[in-house]
Task: structure prediction
Amino acid sequence: MKKRIWLTLLVLVVVVIVGSRSSAFFEQRSSPEMVESAPVATPQPQPELQEVKDELRISVDKLLAHIQQLNFQRYTKTERSRTRTYIINELRKSGWTPKLEKFSGGINVFAERRGTDNTGDAILVAAHYDTVAGSPGADDNASGVAVILEIARLFASHPTPRTLQLAFFDLEEAGLVGSKAFVTNTQRLEKLRGVIVMDMVGYACYTAGCQQYPPGLPVTPPSDKGDFLVAVGDIENLSLLKAFNHADTKNLPSVLTIPIPLKGLLTPDTLRSDHAPFWYQGIGAVLVTDTANLRTPHYHQPTDTPSNIEQAFFVGAAQIVVNAVNTLVNSQ
Result:
């Protein structure tokens, strides 16, 4: 009995110590800042890296053209409808059949290309298309939308074992409303083996000290400059983060991968984008970001315009995501 009591006390002490650490990547709303770093006893099998073929190279012109076409506030119903029209037309140009999925207050756009494997396992790539009032949201989040539209073009005629799904979420800025509605389709979730969510992937800064860090970061910061991409994933699905470890190659930005334990229970500041509802449903998901307010002064501002996108970084970040998607849709 004494042994059990001491063991229980030890566990409580560890939880208190771990819970006292802190982390934050977004400042959309105030909440306690905590980070836990925990070892993994039995990590899941990692996917084999697939060679990226020439036809899976990002088109710089097409990527930047999407940013320019989306250079307007996407906050009102009319503005968001205009955005959906653009997304739908671009998907159709690439041979996809998009569907509108309505929910209370908004509309998501969804499309999929079936894989060659009869099991029907799927990888979802997603981004929100709305903005806050007063901001044209070039980085937040036309950058994520543009990358998905490039993925749609590149993979349209590129067969893969796993099914590739694309989702454009509405009303993320209103409290992740679109992604929360998306995960209520439990039948779709049964085949979902991983999610990549992009939320701001187009801004970089190269001056020493321009990149800020939350206290208690469970990894060693790669630089005091904001020249790297961040991938935040749940620790129960390390295979998704592993795809990003292999995704950065020569001449592309480095990738800082951050595994989060307990699906963000002790790290509420890592739950502020559209990957979070998938974690709640037990689905592995990775948030890909340029760290938002920790780097860019244009976060949720009228100055979040195409002219403030760092083009070389944005193109490199897009290629990294394409490489990771290629790895995941070809893994068994």
User: Anything to note?
Assistant: The chain has a mean pLDDT of 85. The two ends are 47 Å apart (CA to CA). The longest strand covers residues 106-113.
